Amino acid sequence: MRRSAHALRNAQNAAVVNLEVVRTRSSAGGANEALRQFTDNAAKGIEDAARLADAMLAVASALICALAEGNLSLVEDPGGKHRLLELQMSPDAAGALITSVRAAGDGLGVGIKASARGAILRIPREHEAK
Questions:
Q1: How far apart are alpha carbons 6 and 1 in whole angstroms?
Q2: Going by C-beta distance under 8 Å and a sequence separation of 6 or more, which residues neighbour residue 46?
Q3: Which one of 37, 52, 76, 97 is most buried, by most CB atoms within 10 A?
Q4: Strand pairing report for 82-88 and 118-124
Q5: Within a 13 Å sphere around the CA of 75, how many CA atoms are in the beta-carbon half?
Q6: pTM surpassing 0.70?
Q7: Tell me: the pLDDT tens digits for 15-53?
Q8: Domain boundaries, the chain
Q9: Which residues are CB-contacts of 22 (< 8 A; sequence separation ≥ 6)?
C-alpha cells in the first residue's frame, strides 16, 4: 500500500510541477486571462484529487490493517441505511483517519466518526454490489 501511495503522490507532484511551469511562463509572457483561469482550475482540480486520493489510501490502509489484525467489526445501524464498520485502532491513528476522510468532503461517499475503540466508517447501502 505504501508503494502505491508513493507512486500516486509522485504522479501528482509531476502534474503540479508542470502546471506551475505553465502558469509561470504564461504570466511572464503576458498570456491572456482565460489561460490563467484554465491553469488555476487545473491546480484546484489537482488539489481536490490529491485530498481524495489521500483519503482513499488512508481508508484502504486502515481497512487492510484492521482486517489483518482482526480489528474490524460490523456495527448495527439502527436506521438500516448504512453499513457501519468499526476499526479498532489507537486514538492517534483514528484521529488521522478521520481528518483525512473529512478533508475529502463528499467525494469519498462515506462518513466517519470516532468511537470508543477507534473509528466507525458509515457506508451507504447504495454502494453495495447488487
A1: 9
A2: 12, 15, 16, 19
A3: 97
A4: antiparallel
A5: 20
A6: yes
A7: 888 888 887 777 766 667 777 788 888 888 888 888 899
A8: 2-127
A9: 39
